[in-house]
Amino acid sequence: MWFTSRRKRDAAEPSGEAPSSSSPRSSQPHGYSFRISSSSDPYTQPQSSPCNRALASAITAAVTSSSSGRDLGNGCGSGCAGGGFLSWIFSARAARADEGKPAGGNWDAHGLPVTRTPVPLARLDGRKRYKVSELNFLDRRARDSASAAEKNPLFDEMSTLRPGGVYTRKQLLGELQTMNSSGMFQQVSLQGKPQPDGTLALTVTYAETVWPGAPKRLKCVNVGLMAPPGAGPDEDMTEREKMDYFRREDRDYVQRIRNAKPCILPESVRQEVLGIVKKQGKLTAGVLGRIRDHVEKWYHDEGFVFAQVQNFGGLDTDEVVCEVVEGDITKVEYQFQDNLNNIVEGNTHIAVIDRELPQQLQPGYIYNVGAAKQALKHINALGLFSNIEVSHRPDEAKEGGLVVEIKLKEQKPKSAEVTTEWSIVPAHQGRPTLASIQPGGTISFEHRNISGFNRSLVGSVTSSNLLNPNDDLSFKLEYVHPYLDGVEDRSKNRTFKASRFNARKLSPVFVAGPNMDEAPPIWVDRVGFKATITESFTRQSKFIYGLVVEEITTRDQDYNICTHGSRVLPSGALSMDGPPTTFSGTGVDQMAFLQANITRDNTEFVNGATVGDRFIFQLDQGLGIGSKNPFFNRHQLSVTKFINLNKQDKGAGKPPPAVLAVHGRYAGCVGDLPSYDAFAIGGPHSVRGYGMGELGASRNLLEIATELRVPITVKNRQTQVYAFAEHGTDLGSSKDVKGNPTEFFRRAGNGSSYGLGVKLGTVRAEYAVDHNAGTGAFFLRFGERF
């Protein structure tokens, strides 16, 4: 005999969905959706296998499949418990669905004398439809009667009988036959007691099957991709032929279990299962139900949402066999769609998408909802698709297999955009006014997914005066070539980038200290070429190395070449004998250097808070090529650790943890050092509470910082308040910078700050105290400090 588990699940399968975005630019977040779903009719094939039906049942979160089993007539007692395989039918709903059921409001009075004596089903009229007003269960051994709503877990899952339901005699006999042939009971009977209102009160009297002894071991096997057992003997077989059939089935079952692959259930859970049996002291159908629930709960909690216990075997031996359909992935299919959901031929090569799938979502592995979400995130990170959908269905071509379907809508490969802006500056009495009526802005274009291999060409031109861009023009043109070693080679993930750039920034080296008038600004223009190779170790850790060739020009606020820094004298005149702005002293430098950057990032989000550690090391090595043959070694090391103070675990609905951030940064330069490349101290990403470079410009620096972040809830939304303290020092190296800009602009060379802040979305509002001056100020910052 064998035992099959089929039942309605306690909870619907998990699903998730993320918003869609119609933006055509890859730099914007792209919409995607995540759906745990199945085909609308998983039973379109009438001959679908039990394994496939089990998977379809799990996918639709309502098990309605039917399972073959041996017809043992009036049930099986202890004498039938030989080394066979027990079939336990929890729900015969699907098997009897074709018989139909009368509507609940259309029923007939029983027409029987109202007595205290129950009436056997044989006395009921086959033409009538009887309404069941009560449903009670009586355990022959316990002599404990309980109402249907209180204590009948076995019957809840197996029988379709419900108080208030309407049934024919044929249906009631069918229910009784299902109970008798399930192997759950040694004895079971069904009788009705006529009620004065014309309804019946049904009583199910049963004796639960008990298998002798208690098993000492639990063997769990995955039978998802194995051929199902036989459908039972034919009705026209003789008794001898049936016995021969059962012997063959027993031998086949032993071989089947021997060839089955082990399931992924950990040993700790198996010991918990054995503890359930040991606590009961015997093995019954009810105990097997609790074992099944315990095993399936572990699978579903771990994200294996389609795993389902199908059978139990070896119930009269020391080792119980638990057969599980775990949800093996047999195939991954991709489908490209247009905006009207029509199937089209995609431009993207499948290998580009396939390499983004985690290993757990590849054929041969068990479907895991966490892996599906991870695949969705990785594919979306490509920036090639406006919508992504992950779904799944039973594989009708392979017994018990699961097909993962990925539906994609590609973005347009070419895009262009023009943005305009006007700068607002404070005027008389601090009133805001336009800096100029002439608009500034950016013209950008992008050609993505060239040849279907995710290669891209991106360009942008920016000016503060679009009407006369020659006054102030910066540009960048970048070509990105991923999969440098071939898209099929997954052992390496290297990306080549080449860019031509022209950038202009205000130098923080030539700024006045707090005790002097504001110094005229110095702008640093960089025009050049950069080629790098990025080697990714993980999603967050990478190694970048390449060559930079550039020309650097320093200019004053009138866009004239400036050779020296200047300051305002007490007389109001400008002192032009400040530090040289370039290494050559002419205001224009050319140089070439090698650059390398290695990042080891183990941070993660725990309920919205960053936890973990991050190490960044950057090295610039001059080649002695360019103006006055500059040769140098410039290096920086940044270490940041985010400590989970209250050890908060991840989980939906759980609050973020309190976090202590500890940060340190060291930078130094050996060899030639142009002033514009000196390390500036002070600013929102150096020492808060000071302006950019307000503390000094040095050859070496050391920064330390700590920040305590505490989560709070504001109007049902999580945010955080924080307190921080920071310190930065030039380590006495400011004098080693040519012209000593720190001393010339009367800066301290070191300083500390502390303060409080609150995070409002991406904005940080904070109050910081300048420890050198003992004064504080409010600041609004965007993004994270570390």
TrEMBL record:
Keywords: Chloroplast, Membrane, Plastid, Plastid outer membrane, Protein transport, Transmembrane, Transmembrane beta strand, Transport. Residues 123-208, 330-410 form the Toc75-like POTRA domain. Belongs to the TOC75 family. Gene3D superfamilies: membrane protein fhac, membrane protein fhac: a member of the omp85/tpsb transporter family. Residues 449-786 form the Bacterial surface antigen (D15) domain. Residues 1-50 are annotated as: Disordered. GO terms for cellular component: chloroplast outer membrane. It comes from Digitaria exilis. Residues 218-328 form the Toc75-like second POTRA domain. This is Bacterial surface antigen (D15) domain-containing protein.
